[in-house]
Amino acid sequence: MHVLLLSFYFPPDLSAGSFRMEALVAALQQRLGADARITVITTRPNRYGSFEAQAPATEVRGGLTVHRIDLPPHQGGMRDQARAFATFAWEARRRVVRERPDVVVATTSRLMTGVLGAWAARSRKAPLYLDIRDIFVDTIGDVLPRRATWLLKPLFAAVERWAVRSAAQVNLVSPGFLPYFQPRYPGRSFSVLSNGVDDAFLEHRPVQESPEGPALSPVHVLYAGNLGEGQGLHHILPALARQMGDAVRYTVVGDGGRRAQLEVALAALPRHAVTLLPPVPRAKLIELYEQADVLFVHLNDLPAFEKVLPSKLFEYAATGKPIWAGLAGFPAQFTRQAIENAAVFNPCDAAGAMDAFRTLQLHTSDRSAFVDKYRRTYIMSRMADDIARLGTGSPA
User: Fold this and answer.
1) In angstroms, rounded to a whole number, what is the distance separating the alpha carbons of residues 118 and 114?
2) Among 12-16, 62-66, 174-178, 214-218, whose mean pLDDT is lowest?
3) Which of 5, 103, 109, 301 is the least crowded, having the fewest Cβ atoms under 10 Å away?
């Protein structure tokens, strides 16, 4: 069997989509055996301008071939992202026409990689497995100015319909997406396979500490991830750092379109209050998790983010560390119900965040049941089974 996989991000790039596809490739290799061919068309590492990683333009390992496309420099804004994707799509088309896949797989957050996958599947006369990691039409309606969305939202809604209707199977990364997709596509069945917990974090399962926990002063809070409009860290962290004073020290690891705005907002605070670090490889990130007392996650106060399920929650949960979460809607409900010792507050609400912080138990917890349920190898094995059935034409 020949699988063609399209992903804007792939290792050694740093992103949830990158790590998700790495695990899927491993699952496909195990499921399909040594005779299978897997061709990945992706980009050179570009997720963060402050993170550099070398990767060959073409990499061949047994039956796996990875083609990486060079992108123009970009800072993460909508215009830069559009230019970067246009470059990716143009070069990807040239490579797609050389392939004769049995099945096309596309994973997409900003929708357009899914559209590229739909074109590839139609042109190659192969079934499409579409993995949707975000609702782009919803997001642009909340993030972009109204004068821009009046035209763009209907346009992207039409593009979304074409991509979804072109797919033989559609997977959603969050159960919170179902109320959006099911009414729009009646009669279509959606699978729901989340990000899950990567094996890299399973190797560092914590030992549960005593319920009293250590005597901590100050408490070390860590945020690791993107610093964009979707996370809204610039709306919440400066207020928390100012109001909680010397009782808490923050470390922020990441980059993104709102990092500069966050830096400006933090400039009036004492320099020791918040430490900003660039993105780091996973091995170093795990060390930082182990050194932290509390792990912080936050999504902006926008309706689109009430449906998502942040991949960071799975990483954080695997550490056993207390989780301090600014979430609303489905992710808030999921966190309260599924993750022990997680304190949830409404996004961008500093007073509510401080009240939630006081409910945390400052010790590690045994979350082995959660980790076993959401182990990524298990989730990707199920996805690989679905893809294999499409490639052979077998019924579900």
Assistant:
1) 6
2) 214-218
3) 301
Q: Kind of pairing, strands 2-6 and 37-43?
A: parallel
- Are the CB atoms for 371 and 110 separated by under 8 Å? no
Mean pLDDT of 66-94: 85
Region of 33 (left: φ > 0; alpha: ψ -120 to 50; beta: rest) is: left
Q: Residue 71 and residue 13: Cα distance in Å, rounded?
A: 13
How many domains does the chain contain in total? Answer: 2
Q: How confident is the model at residue 282 (pLDDT cuts 50, 70, 90)?
A: confident
CATH of the domain at 63: 3.40.50.2000
Its domain, for residue 339, covers 200-373
Distances (CA, A) of 375 to 108, 173, 201, 227, 285: 21, 14, 10, 26, 19
348 shares a domain with 335 = yes
Same domain, residue pair 134 and 259 = no
| DSSP symbol at 375 | B
Residues 190 and 216 placed together within one structural domain of the fold: no
Give residue 396's pLDDT band: very low, low, confident or very high (50, 70, 90).
low
Claim to verify: residue 241 and residue 231 sit in the same structural domain: yes
User: Quick check: 36 and 29 in contact, CB under 8 A?
Assistant: yes
pTM, two decimals, is 0.91
Q: State the SS3 of 26-86.
A: HHHHHHHCCCCEEEEEEECCCCCCCCCCCCCCEEEECCEEEEEECCCCCCCCHHHHHHHHH
* Distance, CA of 304 to chain centre: 15
Say which residues have a Cβ less than 8 Å from residue 64's Cβ, sequence separation at least 6. 25, 29, 38, 40
Instruction: Classify residue 190 by its DSSP letter.
Output: E
- As a whole number of angstroms, the distance between CA 249 and CA 214 comes to 16
**10 dihedral zone (left: phi>0; alpha: psi -120 to 50; beta):** beta
- Strands across the sheet with 219-224, in order? 274-277, 248-253, 219-224, 294-298, 323-326, 342-345
Mean pLDDT estimate for the chain: 90
Residues 232 and 367 in one domain: yes
* pLDDT (0 to 100) of residue 74: 60
Q: Is the domain of 210 the same as that of 145?
A: no
Q: Count the Cβ atoms, other than its own, within 10 Å of residue 39.
A: 20
**What is the average pLDDT across 72-97?**
84
